[in-house]
Each structure stands twice: as structure tokens, then as C-alpha cells.
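Q: For a teaching session next week I want to show students how multiple molecules come together into a single three-dimensional assembly. I've collected the sequence lines for a complex. Could you give me the predicted C-alpha cells for the whole thing so I can convert them for display?
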Amino acid sequence: MEYEAVIGLETHCQLKTKSKMFCGCANEFGADPNTNVCPVCLGMPGVLPVPNELALQLTALTGYLLNCEVPNFAKFDRKNYFYPDVCKDYQITQFDFPSTTTGYVDFEFGSKIERVRITRAHLEEDVGKNNHFDQHSGVDFNRAGVPLLEIVSEPDISSADMAYDYLNALKDILIYGGISDCDMEKGMVRCDVNISVRPKGATDLGTKIEIKNMNTFSGVRRAINYEVPRQIDTLESGGSLVQETRRWDDDAGITETMRSKEHAHDYRYFPEPDIMPLRPSEEWLAEVRSHIVELPLARKQRFIMDYSIPAQDAEVLVGNMPLGAFFEKAVDGSKNPKAVANWVINNLQARLVEAECTIDELKFGPEAIRELVEIIDCGAISNKGGQEVFNELFNNGGSPKDIVDARGLAQVSDSGELDKWCRDAIDTNPGPADDVRNGKENAINFLKGQVMKASRGKANPQIVGEKLLKLLKG
Amino acid sequence: MSNSDFDIKYVANLARIKLSSDQESRLGAQLGDILGYVKKLEQLDINNVEPMAHAVPLHNVMRTDEIQPSLTNEEALANAPKKGNGLFVVPKIVE
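A: Of course. Below is the structure for the complete assembly, covering every listed component.
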């Protein structure tokens, strides 16, 4: 029998705030353990958590960017369970009235635009971090209380690769919106995956298996690629699946049953009495909407349309937001957007990586790239000369025109001087000259080379070619 | 209200409390009494009362995103039964 996979993702991402969700401790990665903690995030009795307004704004903004509804009423609830990284024995989250509901993400998958529907994106607090030792575990609560957005998708995903592309599209949107830095290395994005399989074409859903503990997108892809065949094999061999939570072991490359949360599914949600409900005003929401940005997919399509650059180039520029912004400024008013894209992608990006610096640290502005392209296009300097100008720009800044003058890079297009070089080349190389006269046009390249040599690279090769042909063939 | 409306063993397990059978019947009865007491609320006519998420008529109580001083590590761990390397030390967590 042929099976199909039905996959939904719960994506958690840390919001880009200075302070935590319900207290003023720093939202900061890498501090000494238990130094960004206070009575609120340590769950001491008698404290009063107060929601961070920026976190609420970023949540609403996420709603708008994911085409969600942003309801005019939301509230916080307590999700009760015991685990050492939850010091209050409950997590503050949003249960039945989340801050955003029912949206979708459109993204490229293969050659098509796919849509994954979003059930909801709700706000909660992150939990502490467990460190495991031989005999004991140790808990650091610096992360506890960091604002965490949980973005729940509908089970619209059908393969590991589609999940991977969805996650990357989601991440790009969150980065573009300034909602999260989505730094995977710092654990800012984590995923739970819900997977079931069913006979192809069936409408009922199969038994749902949840996989937890994934902090890389490639891990999600591998876990799905492991889990789907496992479920199919179980069914094919006459077995049955039980609804359970499994853990992804990235080293072993397998999923395995989790023991700890067997009885933890009754979370006994109830309204968080310490926090007042939310009724975002139209004014407040309008302020949030003023931060709506162009989505990466729309940006890519616009780059391709407006600048006639290849899809791969547009993808590179959209995938690297600062580089794309630099390109947009450089290309503004340029007659040759393709060349500008080439310089930004092939030269600038490579040099930035090599020099380990960011675009903010550049010694020149985007207009310098536009000017450089213009100078090359009008024949004032060669491509090779352009390379030298770029290197100088990168190392010391300045304006391309000044660099061309200072370094004497201008190509010679002056007829008299070129004439002389061409005649010399023909006179001293009668063999190749005859070849060209007799129709072996390739031989002209040798003569061209001689002229370039004589001019020490400054002759305009296109004009040289034309001139040689004219002299030889009349 | 009778005990049959809830499972005292299940509730005890959720709360991670180990009860003897004596305690189960005694606490079960007490919990049943409490629920019965609260159930009196069902006798109220609330047809004209809007559903509410909080008894206090306040909304949108928020704070601006500003960092406030935290505790020192020593203060944070002052009441910890066991500590080491700046961490709260707990029994080994097995997933």
C-alpha cells in the first residue's frame, strides 16, 4: 500500500527584546548561570509578573506578517506540570485566547509556491536550561521567562524537505520583521514535530506521534526522514502505533520513546490570575502595523521583476538581509542592475566573509558600486581594472573615479595611440596577421594580446579588436 | 458532591503526592466537600453577566521593555537545597 505523511510543526522562537517576558531581567544569551534572574522568573511566592509590551507588539506583528487574525481579546493562562526547568511548576502561556490565530505562510518549494496554514501564534515564557552531569542535573534559570513565541502550523506539510523549506521561510520572515534573531546556535529556535502516516488519499488522520527536542532545521528533516518510514514499516508489518512523544537523538539519528512525560498530558490550564487580559486598541494595533515589512518571498519576486536579475541572485540577496538592502541602494538609478548584483554577490559578499566583517563596517557606500559599474560599462576601465578599484574601495574606501585617476587605470580609447599599437602589432607579427587576412579570425586574439601588452593593460580591448579588424580586412 | 466526580488517585499523581489508602478516602471526602461548596455557584442566575477573564475590570497592564537589576548568583541560590557551579542542583533528569 502507498502511504503519505501528514506533518504539522510547532516552532518556538525567542523574541528580540531587551528584557524578559514578565520581569526586567536581561534577555541575554551566554551570561553566567543564574545571574539574569529575579524573584519573578525564579517563581518566588508573592511576586507579580507584568507582560513586556514590546513582546506583545512583536507577537501582533508576527500575526500580521503570517496573515493571521489579531483578535481584540487575548489572555494568559497557566499550564501546570512538574519539571525541574519550570520553577513555578507552571508555565505562563496562552491557551484558549491566543494573541493571533488562523494565518498562513506562502513559500517556494521546488518550482511551486506552497501554502502552510498557521493555526495560531501565541506568546509564552521560555523555561530554564538543564545541564546534565554524572550523578545530578543542574538548572540555570537565565532563560526562564524569556519571551517565546509558539507558532503552530496546520498539518499541511507532506515531506521532510517541505518542512525544511517551510522552517527556513518562517525564519526569514521572523528575521525580516525584527521579531527574532533566530540564531540556531544560541537555541533561539526550537521545533516540535507532529507526524502521522495514512494510506495515500485517505481523509482520516493516522495516529499522531510528537517528536520533541529539535534545535536545528536539518535535525527536523532527518527526524522526519527517520520517523515516516518507521511508522509505515510498523503498519506494514501488521503492528499498530500508539500516540506518544518521542525524542530525537541527533547523534544516533533515531527517535525514541520519552519516558518522563507519560502522565504529563493533563496540564490543567486555568486563567493566569496575576495578569490582566489584553484588549489591544485600534491605535495600538495601528502602531504595530506601521512596522509591517515586505516579506522575503515578495521581495525576491520584486527583485526578479524590477531588476531582471536571475532567481538565484535574487535568492542570495533576499537570504542576506543587509546585503539585499545594500544592493537596493546600489542599484537605485543604475542602468545595469545585473552587473550591480554580480559585484555585490560575487565580490562584496565574498570579501566580507573573507575579512570576517559586516556590511556596516564597510569603508564605502552602495553608490560606489553603482559608479564602478558605470565606469566599466562606459569603457573607461576594464573589468580587470574594476577589480583593482574594488579592492582599493574595500581596503581603503574612496570614490571609484578618484581611484581610477590616482592609479592610472583609465583605458586608452584614444584613436591615435591605439592606432600606433595596432600597427606595431601587425608589423611585428606578420604570420598571425596573414591568418586573419585569410579568414582565421581567431588569430586576432593573439594580436589583441600583443596590443594589450604594449599598452600595459590600458587599451580598451573592444576598440582594439575593431581597429585590428579594420586595419587587416579594410 | 460525591467522590465519583473525580479520581483521587489521578489527582494525587498529577500533584506528585503519594497517598495511603486512609489518606485517599479522607482527602477524597474533603476535596469532594470543597467541590460541593464551590458548586453552589451553579445556583446563581448569571444570564445577565458577561463572561469575564478576570474579576478586576482592568486590561492591558504592561511594562516597557527595560532591563532592571537582577539578583546576584549568591542571592538567587541562597535558598537552594543543593547548588554547584552557579546552578540549582537537582536529581538527575532522565528523559
